[in-house]
Amino acid sequence: MPNHYRTGWISDVHLGTRGCKAGALLEFLRDTEFDTLYLVGDLIDIWSLRRGIYWPQDHNDIIQKLLRKGRKGTEIIYIPGNHDEFVSGFIGNYASVTLRKNAIHTTADGRRILIMHGHELDNVVQNLGWLAHLGDIGYVA
Predict the structure, then answer these.
(1) How far is 55 from 59, CA to CA, in rounded Å?
(2) pLDDT per residue over 38-73, tens digit each?
(3) Measured between alpha carbons, how far is 119 from 117 in angstroms, rounded to an integer?
(4) Secondary element (H or E) of residue 26
(5) Do strands 75-79 and 97-99 pair parallel, antiparallel, or not at all (unpaired)?
């Protein structure tokens, strides 16, 4: 029987990279159910995929598992990050996934939390995009 939680957050998965821990995430998703699941940026690493395609079956399996959770009733809120910024132009509802720039989560005890990826607060990402991309290349090389 899977563990069930009111809310969960997953960020910086970086599907499309060799460093992605897809197996561990799949195991986690198989063992865990949520009422609401926030995907908080960099689910897919387009920066890396532009340099070369790397997309093994377990990366597909993660996408399929997330969509299946949505079909079974999990509210999925996807907030794009800097590495998957290509989807930020598609804000709205798509079947079981809601794409948003950010979100406000209300905790069980009534507190409100701003949910955002955080790249909006990074001066290099916001003002010197070329340097951020250069740094990313150096990080994975």
Answers:
(1) 6
(2) 999 899 998 788 888 999 999 999 999 999 999 999
(3) 6
(4) helix 22-31
(5) parallel
Q: How far is CA 19 from CA 45, 86, 106, in A?
A: 11, 21, 33
Q: What is the model's pTM?
A: 0.81
> CB-based burial of residue 78 (10 Å sphere; 0-12 exposed, 13-18 middle, 19+ buried)?
buried
The residue among 73, 74, 67 whose CA lies nearest residue 43 is 67
Q: Which two tokens stand for residue 60?
A: 């597909």
Q: Which of 38, 30, 26 is nearest to 97 (CA)?
A: 38
Closest CA to 83 of 27, 43, 140: 43
E-strand stretches of 11-66: 32-40
Comparing C-alpha atoms, which of 95, 94, 91, 86 is closest to residue 103?
Answer: 91
The tens digit of pLDDT for each residue in 7-42 reads 999 999 999 999 999 999 999 999 999 999 999 989
Residue 65 in tokens: 């598992």
Sheet holding 3-10, edge to edge: 3-10, 32-40, 75-79, 97-99, 92-94
